[in-house]
Write a structure and sequence with these properties.
The protein is of the alpha/beta class. It has 7 helices and 4 strands, in the order αβααβαβαβαα. The protein starts with a helix and ends in an 8-residue tail after the last helix.
């Protein structure tokens, strides 16, 4: 309701994260037409695909290779052509795109400064809520920190703030090598063919499927609040 009051768009979402949040990898195909994906038994997701057209292939101003939870607030990393002076990448993205929700997909690059992760995530969550944006937290595929503590923090924050959690890590546990490449950091690639069992043994199509399912759940949950034409 606050998002609607502020002029946020019910059919828009943003991506906040590192290189894995760029449209070439994450969800971009769903803005390019049905020949770029096959839903198979998940054809009910066409509703969400239609609802959020324009956000899937958009390059977020708050997503960039190497980003961690601290980078999101640093004007140094903002797009100088798009963003205002001293504006952070996150504030710039929300101001220009006016999303109703945002996927917050961070943690892999935070293993080098783990003490900063939780306080910075709290800033992201609280800033998003202030801006009327529903933060959708996502666990990460890897365990580069060795003890699962970053995913544990993400899950606890989602519970504490009462916000959506996409447990992507859990969705990968039955896949070969848990959907990870040999470096145990990057996700195995596959096209968005959800009706192909071999393809669905890879990490990226599972990431895109679970993200679509999350968007669909959000769209349905907010039905009573969306303005009618």
């Amino acid at each position: 309701l606050r998002g609607l009051e502020l002029g946020n768009r019910p059919g828009a979402f943003s991506k906040v994260g590192d290189c894995g949040s760029t449209p070439a990898w994450f969800l971009g195909d769903f803005d390019h037409g049905a020949r770029y994906y096959r839903l198979g038994e998940y054809d009910n997701l066409e509703t969400a695909i239609a609802a959020y057209q324009g956000s899937f292939a958009r390059t977020s101003l708050a997503a960039k290779s190497g980003f961690n939870a601290s980078s999101i607030f640093s004007p140094l990393w903002a797009n100088a052509k798009e963003c205002q002076r001293n504006e952070s990448p996150l504030a710039c993205e929300y101001r220009l795109h006016r999303p109703m929700a945002a996927f917050i997909m961070l943690g892999t690059n935070d293993v080098y400064h783990p003490q900063d992760f939780e306080p910075q995530m709290r800033r992201i969550i609280e800033f998003s809520i202030e801006q009327g944006v529903i933060p959708i937290l996502s666990t990460k595929a890897d365990n580069l920190e060795g003890d699962g503590s970053i995913n544990d923090t993400i899950a606890k924050l989602a519970l504490e703030y009462g916000i959506p959690l996409l447990n992507y890590w859990r969705a990968l546990q039955d896949l070969p090598d848990q959907g990870l490449q040999d470096d145990q950091a990057h996700i195995t690639w596959g096209p968005n063919r959800f009706d192909d069992p071999q393809v669905m043994s890879r990490g990226w199509p599972v990431r895109n499927l679970t993200a679509l399912q999350t968007l669909d759940a959000l769209w349905q949950a907010l039905a009573e609040y969306r303005p009618t034409e």
